[in-house]
Backbone:
C-alpha cells in the first residue's frame, strides 16, 4: 500500500470518527435543550397554578371579609341600649328662632349648623 493511500485512508477514518462524534454530541445537546423546555413548562404550569390558587384565596378572603362586615353591621344595628329602645321618640320643632349665644358675633343661630 502506498503512502498516499495510507494518508487517504487515515484521513477518511478520522473524518468519519469526527463526523459521528459531532452528530452524537449534537444529539445529546438537543436532548438537553428539549429537557430544559419540559422543565420550563413545568415551572410555568406551577407558577400558573400558584397564581390561580392565590386568586381563589383572595376571592375567599374577600367573601369572608364581606360576610364579617355584614355581620358586624347587623350586630351594631341590633345592640342598642335598652333605654334607647324603650324611650319615647321626641321630635322638637322650633316655633321661633332661638337667640344667639352672647359670645357669638356672627349673629347666626346655633341650630342652623345642626
Residues:
Amino acid at each position: 500500500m502506498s503512502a498516499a493511500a495510507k494518508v487517504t485512508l487515515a484521513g477518511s477514518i478520522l473524518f468519519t470518527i469526527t463526523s459521528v462524534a459531532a452528530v452524537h454530541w449534537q444529539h445529546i445537546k438537543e436532548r438537553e435543550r428539549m429537557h430544559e423546555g419540559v422543565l420550563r413548562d413545568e415551572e410555568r404550569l406551577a407558577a400558573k397554578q400558584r397564581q390561580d390558587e392565590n386568586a381563589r384565596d383572595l376571592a375567599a378572603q374577600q367573601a369572608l371579609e364581606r360576610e364579617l362586615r355584614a355581620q358586624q353591621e347587623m350586630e351594631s344595628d341590633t345592640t342598642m341600649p335598652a333605654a334607647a329602645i324603650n324611650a319615647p321618640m321626641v321630635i322638637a320643632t322650633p316655633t321661633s328662632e332661638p337667640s344667639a349665644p352672647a359670645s357669638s358675633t356672627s349673629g347666626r343661630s346655633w341650630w342652623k349648623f345642626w
